[in-house]
Amino acid sequence: MAKPTLYGADYSVYARIARMTLEEKGVGYELVPLDIFAAEGIPAWYLEHHPFGRIPAFEHDGFRLFETGAITRYVDEAFDGPALQPVDARGRARMVQISGMLDAYGYRAMVWDVAVERLEKTQPDEQLIASGLSQAETVLKVLTSLKAKGPWLLGEQLTLADLHAAPIVAYFVKVAEGRDLLARFEDVRDWYQRFAAQPSFARTERVG
Length: 208
Known about the structure:
Strand order of the largest sheet: 2-1-3-4
Shape: globular
Helix content: 40-55%
CATH topology of the largest domain: Glutathione S-transferase Yfyf (Class Pi), Chain A, domain 2
Structural class: alpha+beta
CATH architecture of the largest domain: Up-down Bundle
CATH class of the largest domain: Mainly Alpha
Number of strands: 4
């Protein structure tokens, strides 16, 4: 099969999720840099790949996808390599629940309201950061309650849930508040440290 193409940026949490999925499957791919925050705006041609102008977008043998969850499931099912989804219905449901919970309640609070606000604003909004940390605490509590026994979120099998969660946590712990909060949740902290040793994590880490 032809090598797939992924459109995205190295700063993007969601592009990294897709990239790590490709890495875990051992799939060679072309990364086309696409900065949605560029001063000149989003290129008109890209809207054919993602009509809402977000990243990532994906193409394989003329088949186009956007939405990270759709991309990662396609990659897992279309290519050889280790299975990244549980075979049982309850395991798959838990995987989708964890990813959906992080999308709905974790990403904005942990990445934007805490990490980006602290790292990139000259005068950070401390009230926004505090609110983000409160939400992040709930997310980590829930993630702790959902985590199965074993090295990974769903137990013995590394799945798309791990690949979805790790880049969000990685951004969160760029700041001291994030590191301090994560340290209070030992199971999730230990899982994250374990995942951070994965080759896919190192190969997709932003430099600089």
